[in-house]
């Protein structure tokens, strides 16, 4: 007769032991041991494997919403989609081509665009205008003010076309990739990027 033997602290490690007996049917236990081993392995895998295919770092500030607040995000598994990777690559190549004379190289959209510095240079180069903003801003308030000025200039360009603006100072400064992609795709379409 099988007996369940458990040990362990938080997650119990369980194994089945077949009791040796003088019963002649015990000789058939070799086939049962294979089945028990298979079940044991399957059980270990079920306990040790994650519930979802990808482990995601979820931060409390990303999951708690204020009343009427909306938030968009990209499913981490979607970031592996070849079409998404191609979009990001095309946008990075386009930005780097436009800003080559400025000696600016963008490697990661969220990290390189959130403070408004690169967006300012990109817009000035594309639109052929000079924005009245400080060149370098270290404080968060200064970065957001600069970003506000840059985004107002973008809005002035795009508003006559009637495009819905799906970004804000807080979403860009908050490194929201969805908002950054909406902004860049709108700029690329407006300026007919290759």
UniProtKB/TrEMBL annotation:
GO terms for cellular component: actin cytoskeleton; focal adhesion; plasma membrane. Belongs to the parvin family. CDD domains: CH_PARVB_rpt1. Keywords: Actin-binding, Cell adhesion, Cell junction, Cytoplasm, Cytoskeleton, Repeat. One of its GO terms (molecular function) is actin binding. The lineage of its organism: Eukaryota, Metazoa, Chordata, Craniata, Vertebrata. Gene3D superfamilies: Calponin-like domain (1.10.418.10). It comes from Homo sapiens (Human). The gene is PARVB. It is found in: Cell junction, Focal adhesion; Cytoplasm, Cytoskeleton. Its main location: other. Signal peptide: none annotated. This is Parvin beta. SUPFAM superfamilies: Calponin-homology domain, CH-domain. InterPro entries: CH_dom (IPR001715), CH_dom_sf (IPR036872), Parvin (IPR028433). Residues 85-192 form the Calponin-homology (CH) domain. One of its GO terms (biological process) is actin cytoskeleton organization.
């Amino acid at each position: 007769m099988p007996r369940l033997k458990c040990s362990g602290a938080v997650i119990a490690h369980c194994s089945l032991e077949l009791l040796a007996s003088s019963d002649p049917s015990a000789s058939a236990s070799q086939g049962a041991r294979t089945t028990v081993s298979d079940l044991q392995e399957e059980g270990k895998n079920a306990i040790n494997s994650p519930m979802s295919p990808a482990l995601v770092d979820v931060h409390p500030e990303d999951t708690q919403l204020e009343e009427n607040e909306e938030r968009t995000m990209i499913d981490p598994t979607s970031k592996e989609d070849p079409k998404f990777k191609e979009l990001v690559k095309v946008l990075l190549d386009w930005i780097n081509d436009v800003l080559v004379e400025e000696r600016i190289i963008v490697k990661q959209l969220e990290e390189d665009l959130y403070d408004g510095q690169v967006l300012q240079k990109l817009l000035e180069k594309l639109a052929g205008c000079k924005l009245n903003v400080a060149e370098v801003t270290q404080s968060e308030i200064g970065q957001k003010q600069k970003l506000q000025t840059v985004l107002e200039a973008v809005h002035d360009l795009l508003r006559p076309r009637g495009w819905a603006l799906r970004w804000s100072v807080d979403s860009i400064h908050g490194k929201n990739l969805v908002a950054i992609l909406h902004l860049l795709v709108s700029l690329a379409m407006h300026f007919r990027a290759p």
